[in-house]
Amino acid sequence: MKLLTKAMQDDMARQMTFKARDIDMTLYNALDGSMERDFVLDSLMLYRTKDGGFAGGLYIDNYNTNTSVYQIYEAFRLLDMVDFDSNCDNELYTDIVNKACNYLFNRCEMIDNKWNPNVKSNDDFAHSKEFSFTNENKELFGYHPTAAILGYTLKFHKPTKAYYKKALACATKMINDFMSMDKLTKYEFISFNSFYNSVKNLGLFSDKLDALKDKLIKMAEEVVSDDFNNDDAIKPLDCAFYISSKKLDELKDKQLDFIIDSIAPFGLWDHKKSWGYDKYAEEDSAMIKWVGAETVNNYFVLKKYGRIEQKVI
E-assigned strands of the chain? Predict the structure, then answer.
């Protein structure tokens, strides 16, 4: 089993100070224990909009300065990464999640129990092909990021709060929809895995959780790929991040080794995925920004699966 060694971690920390965005540097430091996680809240405020959402390239491949559901998902994903939850009494945290949920549940239309992750104004700004406002992309995302957002909302709010109750109602309908689905897109796998983890840890839907997990495992085993260089392939950590079976666990171990082996010579991870067309020059700057974000994402994964060599304090 390969590990991210102490020397690799030391080099990574140095390189992050030169190459990462402030938000990614803050997340990395929070994950490695060298900084309080509350600084992540301050970094997120750099991307918050007047309506309480998020924009401006928080998710790097969309430069739209107007709020979109996907950018709120990205903010929630980062909060979850450093384990914020409803027990947090930081006033800024409460303000962030309340205003974002106000946008989602009161200002943003749900159709067929799903939010469209994209907004029409995306097309007025530099963005990757997946963030064009098209029906094709709406189908590509499907229940992503709705499923993940519902799980995060349940985690971030107390059961007595209105947004918790709204999310619970939507999640109940979504589970019924999921049980009738015969296939998932790559992005839906990510979102349903996230949702499963949230509700499992909260002790919700105990009468449905095993069936949800078993179906996720079955569907994942049917499509999972070990072609780790293929951006379009559904890889183990895409479809089975929080679920486990012998086949999936073996493939996850291989992918974790691949992640460690693929660290670039400068000590961080490059981003391999292109924007899908040659429409915007901003793709070049996005690829540079992705170095820090990709490193945070991979460090989080390696830490979760015990692939970080522990430093002696």
Answer: 110-111, 114-115
Q: Are 58 and 66 in contact (CB under 8 A)?
A: no
Which residue in 186, 166, 149, 168 sits closest to 70, CA to CA? 149
- In percent, how much of the chain has pLDDT > 90? 98
| Residue position matching structure tokens 């918790």 | 164
pTM of the model: 0.97
pLDDT band at 310 (very low <50, low <70, confident <90, very high): confident
DSSP-derived pairing of the beta strands 110-111 and 114-115: antiparallel
In this structure, how many other beta carbons lie within 10 angstroms of the beta carbon of residue 22?
12
Supply the DSSP symbol for 125: S
Residue 93: name the closest of 118, 112, 76 by CA.
Answer: 76
Whether 8 contacts 264, CB under 8 Å: no
* 118 touches 128 (CB < 8 A): no
Q: Where in 69-188 does DSSP place strands (E)? A: 110-111, 114-115
| Alpha-helix runs per DSSP H in 82-207 | 91-102, 135-141, 146-156, 162-179, 186-202
- Map tokens 């109602």 to a residue: 169
Both tokens of 230, joined, read 């293929």
